[in-house]
Structures are given as C-alpha cells and as structure tokens.
Amino acid sequence: MSIEVGAKLQGKVSGITNFGAFIDLGEGKTGLVHISEISNGFVKDIHDVLTVGDEVTVKVTSVGDDGKVGLSIRKAQDQPQQPEKKPFKREFRDNNRPKPSAKGKPQNSGKQDFDSLMSSFLKDSDDRLSSIKRNTEGKRGGRGGRRS
C-alpha cells in the first residue's frame, strides 16, 4: 500500500505525546497527527480526545523524503458546506473629529492645516523635552562637567 498525499486511511492510535498522536496505518507504517490537526476546536490535552487503541480516519497531509507521514483527523471529517459568513465590519471612532457642542454645531468648525498642526506638535515636543531635561539634570550631577 502506497501512502499518497490526500488519501483517507483508517488507522489505530498507537501512542500519544504532548504535541500529537502517532497513528499505526498498517504494514509497518506510522504517521503523526499534530495536536492542531485533531479537532476543529482548541485541544488543550490530547487525552481528552484520543486514547491509545482508538480507531480513527485520517487524511495524509504530507509525506517526507525521510518517511515521515503527516496526518490530519479534522481534514478527514466530511463537513457539510456552511453558508459563507459575512465579514465582520468594525466601526472606528475618529477621535480627532471635533465633538458637537450643545447646540449641535462642531466646536472646531475650521479645519487646521498641516503646518499649524506640525508647529503645535513641535512646540509641545520642545516643552516636554525641556521639562524632562530640567527634572533629570540635577539627578545626574548636572552642570559641573566631567572631572578627570
């Protein structure tokens, strides 16, 4: 029996590790089902889903040159076609937009141009840097310069 990618096979669980389960495919062939390929849902502990000796249907996902066979239980399950879900649409709130005043008119009805925004940013930035320098200068010894 040749094992090809995409083939569905019957096998028996021969061993369980914390990262997956080894499946005996017969004729001395063994493959590994990774923990992420056991179920469509999250699997914290494989022992909750599989036990040694269970008969399972698996789908071959990969066959390595070194003889390693990758298997999947969740891809082997025939699932009915589910209706296509609409993508989730997230609405973002624009925090930069002026808030309406009590009378229903925006408080900042005139838009600021890029130059005025940039100049106010630079002013705030310079003020913050100077206050940081003022507060840390005394803690590092400050003004005296280096002594050799």
UniProtKB/TrEMBL annotation:
Chain spans, region Disordered: 68-148
SUPFAM superfamilies: Nucleic acid-binding proteins (SSF50249)
Domain S1 motif: 6-74
SMART domains per UniProt: S1 (SM00316)
Pfam families: S1
Residues annotated as transmembrane: none
PROSITE patterns linked: S1
Biased composition (Basic and acidic residues): 83-97, 123-140
PANTHER family, per database record: 30S RIBOSOMAL PROTEIN S1
Designated name of the protein: S1 domain-containing RNA-binding protein
Organism whose genome encodes this protein: Enterococcus hulanensis
